[in-house]
Every structure is written in C-alpha cells, then in structure tokens.
Amino acid sequence: MNKRSIRDIDIKNKSVIIRVDFNVPLDKQLNITDDTRIRAALPTIKYALEHGAKKIILMSHLGRPDGQIKEELRLNPIAKRLQQLLGEPVEKLDDCVGPLIKNKIESSEKRVILLENLRFHSGEEENDTDFAKGLADLADIYVNDAFGTAHRAHASTEGITKFIPGVCGFLLEKEINYLGTALENPKRPFAVILGGGKVSDKIKVIENLLNKADKIIIGGGMAYTFLKSQGKQIGKSKLEADKIEFAREVLEKAKLKKKEILLPVDNICVREIKPDSEVKVVGENIPDELIAVDIGPKTIEIYKKSLARSKTIVWNGPLGIFEIDAFANGTKKIAEFLSTLNATTIIGGGDTAAAIAKFGLEDKMTHISTGGGASLEFLEGKILPGINALENK
Asked: Which of 103, 240, 358, 375 qualifies as a cystine partner to 369, CB 3.0-4.6 A?
C-alpha cells in the first residue's frame, strides 16, 4: 500500500481539507476526558501550517447523531482544546457544507478552520455524492489522517476523493507502515496475541494470521471456546457454542502448518463478576459454578517465555476483564513484559489500547493503533476503503 502522503505534494498557497478523528470522550459537562486523538492529529496540521497552506480545513465526526443536529455533539469543546494544543487560532463553523460555509472559510482571517460534526448530515455515512462534492468544493487537496474511520466508505473518507486529489496524513501513514509491515514483511519470529470476549469477532483475523504468524497466543473470553473444543470443562466461562467446531479446525490447521497456538493452562475464576468477588486460581478444567475472568500465573509465565525471542508482536484484545483491577493482572503482566523486549510491538486500538493506557505503558510500545475496528479489519487482510481511495505513489 504505497500511498502518497502530504509530504509528496505541494500545498503552498493551497486550501487543504483534512479528515481527522476528533471523536473524543466527553463528560456530562462536555469536557474532554481524553485528548489523545486530537494530539495525534497535530503533526499533520503543523506540517500544513509550516509548509504554507493557505487554509487548513479540519473535518470530523463526534458520537452518533444519525443525521440529526444534537447540541451536545457539536465540536465546540474540540475547537477550544485544539487551539490550546496547536498554539494557533482556530475558527469553528456551525455547518460543514454549502456556499455560506465556503464564503466563511475564504473570508476568515484564521488559517485553521474546524467544520461542524459531519454526521449531523445523513449524507456523510451514506457516502452521498452531493455531500462529498460539497466537502471537496471547500479545498484543493484532501488529506486523510483518520485511521479510526478508514474502514468506512463515507463521504469524508472515500467519496471526496472522486473530486479532489487525496493523500494520507502522518498518522494514517504510520498506521499503514506499522500494520502493513507487520503483516507483509515482519521480522521473525512473529507472534500474535489475541484476546477479547468473542471468537466470532476474530474469525477472519485468525484465518488471515494463521498463514502469516509463527505463533498465536490466545486469552480473554474467546479462549474458553477453544478450550471447550479440546474437551476441557470451562464452568460458566464465556462460550460461543456455535464456534466450537471452528476452534477445533483452527487448532488442527495450526498443527498441519506447524504453527504454535497457546491457550491458558490455569485461570483466575470467580462465582460472580464483581470487583470484590473471591478469586480462585483453577487449572485447565474449571468447576461448573465458576467463571474464568483472567489468565492464571502459570499461563502468564508460559506466554512470557514464548514471547521472549519474538521480533514482531501484534496484540489485539485484552487477556482478561482488565477494567476490574482484580482481573487485570494477566493483561498487565504481559504488557509490562512486552515493554522490556527488543521487538516491534504493535497494539491494536480499542480495548487493548485502553488497557495499555491504564497501565501507563503507551510510551513503551512501538506503535499503538488509533482505530479499533479499522485495525481489526486491517489484520483480517481487508482492503480499507478510506486508504484504498487515496493516490498511489
């Protein structure tokens, strides 16, 4: 995926419209509780400022307004925070397309303009041609720097490229480089850690990575469907009964391909999923009344030993219910161990990124993806429409 980036084109005296991902969490008072995504967009915005762009028009969605104007989902708090972080005046507009908006952009004394929430218009998610053209009419060049939405064919990610040249920003370029290299040309041994609740969410990832990885380490709720397929007792742990056969087939295929798949050999179990529940360490067979909520100490040591010599590690999905401290140990210990390795460590977005942030290890990983769904689809080997639509080098 050899895509042109903002550094490959002349932006001097041009209007540049950038798709950013400012879908940040807000509290009830509409204060931003985590500005990571805004900070992640700064290098591309600053590059455009430093290289003489006439106007830098930023567009994003926030939440799920479903084509309606929702006051609590306006981008006003984001404009305020962006201005603080950028050290440059930011003008926030109350809509995102139309002659009035175009005039306001052209007459504004400010170089950085933030459009209103794209999803106030149903045309955004419908990839409506007129809406996409309305966005394209505001600028000369389009830059996609929103990996978190690259798996969606929306007007601001795919439709707009039919009208003006489209390239990637630095954040999107980084995602393509790290995830793309890990999948197509990894330093070996190449290990994949898969967790999270459901096997069904990871079917295509497993099928794709079974051909590419040297080993797959499995934890989280999805592990118990695999253990069940081996005839193990899993108590009241998470089970997708309709995926037992798939799990069995994966284990057989791995044997034929001489690929290692590691499953928990002991488990942290409780009677009820509550922070103050009494915790028991149980072996491979879990009694009927118990629920597995994390990997056990023996499993942690086996996983660490298996990962020790890996040169590339991709991790998607936590290994236990990490949101509850008592059930976070497995995820935490493996994350801490990865932070000590001389390896390329790539963290899939979503819950895995949230876990790494919880343990304060963001700076110790090679790359943390900014898109949960997008990184999952990338790992499945899918072509993401928001990336595919951009110009090739």
From this structure: 375
The token pair that represents 182 in the structure block:
């890990």
Let me know if residue 86 belongs to a domain: yes
Domain CATH for 283: 3.40.50.1260
Give the pLDDT band of residue 48 (cuts 50, 70, 90): very high
Domain count, the chain: 2
Helix residue spans in the chain (DSSP H): 36-50, 76-86, 99-107, 122-125, 129-136, 170-184, 203-209, 223-229, 244-256, 297-307, 329-338, 351-358, 372-379, 385-388
Question: Which residues are the active-site residues?
Answer: 37, 198, 350, 373
Q: Is 295 helix (H, G, I), strand (E, B) or coil?
A: strand
Q: Do 213 and 295 belong to one domain?
A: yes
Is the same domain home to 270 and 313? Answer: yes
pLDDT tens by residue, 135-174: 999 999 999 999 999 999 999 999 999 999 999 999 999 9
pLDDT bracket for residue 183 (50, 70, 90): confident
Domain around 134: 6-172
Burial per residue of 280-319, b for 16 or more beta-carbon CB atoms within 10 angstroms, e otherwise: eebebebeeebbbbbbbeebbebbbebbeebebbbbbbbb
The answer to whether residues 226 and 362 belong to one domain is yes
AA letter at 299:
T
Task: Report the mean per-residue pLDDT for the chain.
Answer: 95
CA distance 239 to 197: 9
Mean pLDDT of 194-214: 92
